[in-house]
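Protocol step 4 of 6: record predicted structures for both targets in the notebook before any analysis. Target 1:
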Amino acid sequence: MSGARAEPYLSIIITSRNDEHGGNTLPRMQVSLSGLLEQLEKHKIESELILVEWNPPPDKPPLRHILKWPAQLKYCTVRNIIVPQTIHQRYDYSDKTPMNAVVAVNCGIKRARGEFILPGVIDLLYPDELVAFIAKKNLNKNERYRVDRCDVDRSVIRFQTLREQLDFCRNNIIRINAQSPSRKRKWFVAQRNLPELHTNACGDFQLMSRYAWHLLRGYREDDIIGAHVDGILSYASYAAGIKEVVLKNPMCVYHIDHDDKFKDRITRADLPLQKWLSIPFMPSWMNKKIIGLYRVLLVFMGYKIKRRVHGVPTLANNEYQRIVKNIVNGKRSYILNDENWGLDNESLEEFIINIADWDKQHEKAVQF
């Protein structure tokens, strides 16, 4: 890069690789990217989209070659950062999961130039009202912006235009991941003297300033699966003095439904002596109730419940609750990683897919 650092208003980070995780991966990604880029142009938001491609499969073409990119975007620079297999293999359990999604996102955040940074996922559609709100450029660097996530029928990918897709989303919502807490959630917050934050599906929309992201040093990188990293980030930002602002309907994000969702992959290891607690001839719901009460007792006594995703150990609920309680109460730092977070000490290959007008005087394209 030559000259002064170019700084767009908004950086959006997505991570992926050319495989079929969740089914219909490329169609979902294409719908999401095409719609987003159309809206950034429509609302004239000086922006950059950073696609972090983690551990690309050696037998498949890179994403920049198979995704369709609009020609001559004026407002959005599109960057493609490659994290090679050699880096992926450094992490524990790298043989069991093809992505370290947390480090991949942090990699994009660390290299983002935007005044504000929005990590996203590959299959979101954004209501026009939400993009218009961002385009007003009234975001506060000391605030973290949240919205509800609305899961929508996967048939949305059949429609060709963004208008048709958004109309379909509004009328085909499967579930709304809103702020309203369940009784269990209210108990958790009250018992631990925690603020009532909107942590329901919060990983899909956490919009903060670059200042705030760097203050916290991104998402917690201790776990290759990344369970609860979005919730931990929410409480860490609160402890750091970053105010949560929940934007209301019609501002939300639409998430295209797919197979192999995170909650479907989680398994819980059997508790000590659990098999002796199931009483023959007793209704299954009652046995589940007994085991649930037994689990609560074990946690109260300090036992760490073990969770796994595809055989990989990951953070369980009780340990997550302990971490956020300590962060909020000042017993643990809200800074989540060391100074090399986001692979800061690595020189990564990068391709420029499009250079926006605001960026042309600062950036030279890399041919591919």
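Target 2:
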Amino acid sequence: MRKERLLAFLFFLTLIADVPTLAYYNDLWTPGRLVEWLVVRLPVKLSPFEIILIIMLATTRRRGPIAKPMVTAIYVSLASLFWAAAYGLARGGLVLPMYTQMICWIVSMITAMTVLTVCSTAADLYRINTAILYGAIWRACIANSFYIMSHDWDWTRRPACMTSHEDSALFVIGLAVLISRAIEFGSKQYIRQLVIWGPVIVMAIQVNNRRLAWASLVMALISIYFLLPTRGRALRTVNRALKVVIPIVAIYVTVGWGRSEKIFAPLQSFSSMGAGTVDKSTLARDNENVSMITMIQDAPLLGTGFGHEWIELDSSYTVPLTAFPFYHYSPHDSIMALLTFMGGFGFAGLWAVVPVSIFLNARTCRNSLRPDERSIAAAGVVQCIAFVNQAFGDMGGVGVPHIMVATLFSVGIASAARVSASSGARPYSSSRAT
């Protein structure tokens, strides 16, 4: 098996692997249990999947055109990360918590480098996105099945989620792949796939009960729309469809906003994000954010460095160490956490991969003449958006539990590096190994 195909297959296996943090783990056996070992961390603090990625990266010679700014941004990001670690150690930080604070970003950058090294063509990246799509469909089917079998459609007795919080990003990215392919290719095959699997994934988003998923989905749809070429059949087709869809959505929102019937459950997710919705969870998150804002004001440029805790202003919302030993090293809002630990200087270097990736993928959408490259780039933008939303809302960039989101983000980075060069949207450095 060629490395490109092996990498896509490994992506699929890691996305369907069952781990104890999944809601259905103790109640429902799936074949994903057979590949659980692939994502379980070994004593060396890496999973077999991550070790295989490192081996692939070390043994593969990079071929084909590549956008040098994206590779440079990855190196700058890693350098900023390790600078913050060194700075934290110099200030008396602890080594053990650094693993929790840094592992998501390290895995994401290593995965991005591996994907952009192994996948030298748009066809290879297309295959990776197909693996992600199949993973999203697999998890969506499990989420829907678990909901039906366990709760007999009684929405009042559903648990916090059906699979995991990470799957919010997976479902949205899977939908983005379906939508971008249906728009860009316009063939019956891809439209049929969207019609069949789109509702399955949307239902999974709803029963998985995560507000972040709906926010990411709306942002993904808006992004895909504005990424469409200003002149082309795809935009005209979408605009015609919107003339029908927008009035229906407007009526749905007008009638359903603030109502409790289950048909309006997606609107409840949005309304609960706004002002006036206050519960213990919201107050705890607010306490985290205000505490970190105070710390950022004390050290705006350099931060505290990794290995240090964020200091609570109000300890009444604290999480017991028995439940989460590294709570004070890994707050929920990863973006605020990174600003606290790295300061504005370190964060700017670390975060550079996000705007560079979105910019290069967006240029590909506007400049490429090939539908496969445009669909890959559109999915790449959504992969970045889903990551940023997850990082802002629920430990997407700091903390061990959410490695999947960082892995999906890495595909968007690799897509920016490869298709922006092959499409001519960005002049590349060289076709030689670098």
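Step 5 preliminary note on target 2. The two ends are 25 Å apart (CA to CA). The first helix runs from residue 3 to 16.
Proceed to step 6 after PI sign-off.
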